[in-house]
Amino acid sequence: MEAKLTPEKIRANLLNGELNKETAGDLLISLVEGSNNAKVRKESIETFEKIDLKTQKIFKILENCALSDESPLVRSAAVRSILLYFPKEGENSMRWVVQRDKSPIVLKSIFDVLDKCRNSRFELLKTDISNWIEKFVSEIGIVPEEARFILDLEALFANGRQKYEINLDIYDYCESIRNVKEGSPWLVIKNKRIEELNFNYFNWTFLKQVPDSYNSLSKLAYLDLFFAYLKGSNFIPDEPAEIPESIGSLKSLKNLNLSRNKLKNIPESVGSLASLECLDLSHNELESVSKSIGLVKSLQFLNLSHNNIPYFPHFICSLYGLENLNLSHNKLQNVPESIGNLTLLKKLDLSQNNIQELPESIKNLKQLKSLRLSNNKILKISNSLKSFLDSMGPPVN
Fold it and tell me: What is the number of structural domains in the chain?
């Protein structure tokens, strides 16, 4: 039956009149209770919502899944449906989940629903959540406002893993681990707020999956030995999900390094990081850049190198405090006149692009000490601009 019967097919047959709602519900229940495939069980639960099935029988099925299904994806789908459609009947079971379930995917599902729901019936549940957050943040040493981002990170680590439970030990580890080249820590917490985050999904996931390795790694003088160890471990991580929007809650964040994460986009909430001074998005798969970065007026360092960006992001030219801008190894074809607005710029790297012409406004960059233009297709430079570039001293490459 399972090979032929799918939640999508049941819904389609209901919509085209081949099934009535009662029969469709019974078929979905048979999948929830009889399938060995967690994805099928999860999609069956979600289909209850899509076809508006809200019977007591359905509630009992959902409650059983929320409390005892082995898959966190199934439990997550079940608690979401209970909170949305059975808040009265499910109050006690949802409180039990908050107090006992260790999966960040399940807990995140509860947080997501309650963030959008103002149902007064959830007051006791919200009290339980507040208690959970208080304990959660005390173990890490951060303020409650930043707990959501850590929970979302934990859900990211848990994605695709059947028995993953929250383990906060890694945050202590990451405060003592440092990057090889820059010497900057993976995590800096001051006054209970995250100020620096060097987040590489693959490296953090490795520590999550092989925590015992830290005892030896922590004694290494250079992290390049760690990376050599990682490569030799046959560790192959899953593809990372997107960086969670809740990163915007880190209001004291000054240094954010998201390089080498295979990111195709970044969350709009980055624009809320009002204290951010350094942002590194290099070595990803970005084809465009969120305009929200233009709102971070505190930025002094921005690295977008080694991506697939075809057009110069004009909003960057409103970041008047920028001192270092790296757009090398992209697919840029032009540079806007508005780049002349970045009068505090000291380093500008536009090398390894397809730029054919430079704007005259570059002459406004009086603080510029280093300009890299190698491997472009620049056809001509005006005499006045050439004189300005020559005045910077060789080499201009």
Answer: 2
